[in-house]
Design brief:
51% helix, globular
């Protein structure tokens, strides 16, 4: 678990994210945390389940982010464009995921309840690294953003990730049977953790 220790970034102690590779146990971790804390709100689980519904809400929230802060929207979009996404599909995916989470952070502002994301801002950065072909200024994406007070880390061995991926019903972006993709996923995770630490998160022993 990482806890933010920085005066530079605004954060909320009742916000938390889970970071990890696909099939590393993020959703399971969130489920266990909800069992221990029934009041915990799983932000991603409240999004529409249908593909059409999710795409519609992404486009709607992207428009809202642009209307609220066009300069920040354009800046973030330029940074993501500089990552050299392999194709238009990947570019749309990482752009929409980033702007979606930026908007969700501003919407879920009830201090009386704890919120958790298993596909939050830092997982969005992982996706940008994984699908990108160039280095980009990930730190600048977090300028003037509201951040989670905690980031939990989910991980598993490569062998376990391969086994879990075989049992998943839906297709994943990362093909664990492809060694190059697996290594790219690990590289993206390492880069994302570096971003987490550069922002000012300190690794702590999770006692929950």
């Amino acid at each position: 678990m990482f806890i933010l220790n920085s005066q530079k970034y605004a954060s909320k102690d009742n916000y938390a994210e889970v970071l990890g590779m696909p099939s590393s146990g993020k959703t399971t971790l969130v489920g266990n945390m909800k069992k221990n804390n029934p009041g915990l709100i799983d932000v991603n689980a409240e999004l529409p389940e249908s593909k059409f519904g999710r795409q519609a809400i992404k486009l709607f929230y992207m428009l809202q982010v642009f209307m609220r802060s066009p300069k920040a929207f354009i800046r973030d979009t330029k940074i993501i464009l500089s990552s050299g996404q392999k194709n238009a599909k990947d570019l749309y995916s990482v752009l929409s995921n980033w702007h979606l989470n930026v908007r969700l952070y501003s919407l879920n502002n009830d201090a009386d309840y704890p919120y958790i994301w298993d596909q939050g801002l830092f997982q969005a950065v992982w996706s940008i690294y994984f699908c990108g072909t160039k280095e980009f200024d990930a730190i600048r994406l977090f300028e003037n953003k509201l951040l989670p007070g905690k980031v939990y880390f989910a991980d598993a061995s490569n062998e376990e990730l391969i086994n879990r991926s075989r049992n998943r019903n839906r297709r994943m972006r990362l093909n664990y049977l492809n060694h190059d993709e697996l290594e790219k996923g690990r590289y993206a995770l390492e880069k994302t953790i570096q971003v987490v630490e550069k922002i000012g998160y300190i690794k702590k022993q999770d006692t929950t």
